[in-house]
Amino acid sequence: MGSRRSLTEARHWCLNNLAPPNIQSGVDACVLVVEDDRDLRECLVDVLRTELPDLELREARHGREALAEIERRTPTLVLLDMLMPVMDGAEFLEALDRAGSGDLPRVVILSAGDEEHLGAPRPRVVGALRKPVHMDELVDVVRRWCEPRG
What we know:
The chain is an alpha/beta fold. It has one domain (about 5-145): Response regulator (Rossmann fold, 3-Layer(aba) Sandwich). It is built from 5 helices and 5 strands. A 5-stranded parallel β-sheet has the order 2-1-3-4-5, with helices on both faces. Helix 2 packs across helix 5 and helix 3 packs parallel to helix 4. The model is unreliable at about 1-25 (pLDDT under 50).
């Protein structure tokens, strides 16, 4: 099988082995949804707004917009599509790696199964969700990284 993990294996490893930071929900927790498909982006935001009403939710259509959003305020978590125009997910992750700050957000990849776009493992990538995204999994992952442990 080599050193590459499937999205499912990577997701399970992340959920079982990485401890989320003890971040307070509400105004301190912010999720940035980076997705070029407007309908899907709005659907993800609507579900999160309904299920986790205390989260601040922001949107970006591609990686370049996401970097600009991060300049304004660093989110707790980024939900990142990999295949987008202007700046795709891999380019966005490379830009975060170059920035090198420990204050940069954790990232959950949204992928239609295009595992080759994930590249080498990256420390800030804490999970992956396969499209079509199951909304209960989405909410669980966001809760894990954005609500306080107790």
